[in-house]
Specification:
- The protein has 3 domains: 97 residues, Cobalt-precorrin-4 Transmethylase, domain 1, CATH 3.40.1010; 87 residues, Rossmann fold; 90 residues, 3-Layer(aba) Sandwich (Cobalt-precorrin-4 Transmethylase, domain 1), CATH 3.40.1010.20.
- Helices cover 43% and strands 18% of the residues.
- The strands form 3 sheets. A 4-stranded parallel sheet has the order 1-12-10-11, with helices on both faces.
- Helix 8 links the parallel strand 8 and strand 9.
- It starts with a strand and ends with a helix.
- The mean pLDDT is 94.
- It binds FE3-S4 cluster.
- The site of FE3-S4 cluster (F3S) has 14 residues, from helix 1, helix 5 and helix 9.
- FE3-S4 cluster binds next to helix 1, helix 5 and helix 9.
- Its EC number is 1.17.7.4.
- Catalyzes the conversion of 1-hydroxy-2-methyl-2-(E)-butenyl 4-diphosphate (HMBPP) into a mixture of isopentenyl diphosphate (IPP) and dimethylallyl diphosphate (DMAPP). Acts in the terminal step of the DOXP/MEP pathway for isoprenoid precursor biosynthesis.
- It holds the Pfam family LYTB.
- It comes from Bariatricus massiliensis.
Length: 284
Amino acid sequence: MKIIRAKSAGFCFGVKRAVDTVYEQVEKEKEKQIYTYGPIIHNEEVVKDLEQHGVKVLREERELDALTDGLVIIRSHGVPKRICDKLDGKGIVYVDATCPFVKRIHKIVKEESEKGSHIIIIGNPEHPEVEGIRGWAANDATVIKTPEEAKEFSCEDVRKICIVAQTTFNYNKFKELVEIISEKGYYISVLNTICNATKERQTEAGEIAGAVDAMIVIGDKHSSNTQKLFEICRDACNNTYYIQTLGDLDTNQLRSVETVGITAGASTPNNIIEEVQNNVRINF
Ligand code: F3S
C-alpha cells in the first residue's frame, strides 16, 4: 500500500508556539500554579498530558474572576481585550501565547474601530478566536457566517466598514460573503486575514484526497479546522475517515485500498500522526 502524508499535516506555527510556551512555563515556574485560559489547543490528548504536568484549565471567565494568584497562559486563539485588562487589574502574571497572526487582527480591529469603522468579522460567532477578535473592537462588531446573514446586514450611520476573517475560515466562502456585502454600497476595506497555514493545509489535503483510494483526517472532534479539512477531503474522496487517534481507525475500511492519504488538523500532535501512519504501513 502506498501512503501519502500531507507535508502540512499537524501543528501550525501558532499552535506549536502556544504548546511549547506551556511546557516552557512548566519547567520555569515550578513554584507557581499554571493555568491556561481555556484548553491550550483543541486536542484532548495534549490537554490531558498537560494536566499530568500540573497545568489547570480555566474554562470560564468566573473562574478567572476567583483567581488570586498563579500564572495564566493565553492560548493561540487569543482573548478579548477585557480579559487582559482583568488580569492586569488583578495583578496576575500572564503569558500571552496568542498567535501573532491573530494578534495582528486584534490590532487591525482595535485601530480601525477607533478610527470610526464598523467591524465585520467573517467567521463563526461561537469560536473563541472570533469572540476574542470581537473583544478588541471599540464599538460593537458584527459577525457574519452565512450568505443569509450577509444579505441581511445593514448598518446605519456608518462611514466605513472594515472586514476581517477568522484565520481558519474557508477562503471561497469568505470571498462569497465579501461580494454580497460589497454590493450594499458601503465604503469597504477588506483585509483577508485567513492564515496561509490553513489554506495550504486545505489545498494539499484536497489534492491528496483526489488522488487516493482512502483518506484519513486526524484531529480532535472539537477542532473546527479539522472538521473543515474533513469536508474538503470528503468532497474529493468518498472514503474519507475522521479519527481522533489510532483507536478510532476501523481497520476493515482500508482492506481493499491501494493508496491512502493522511492529513491532520492544526492541533494534532505529531506523535499521533506518526502512530497512525506507522500502523497503516505495517498492517495493510
Ligand atoms: Fe496562527 Fe495560522 Fe495557526 S493563525 S494558530 S498559524 S492556523
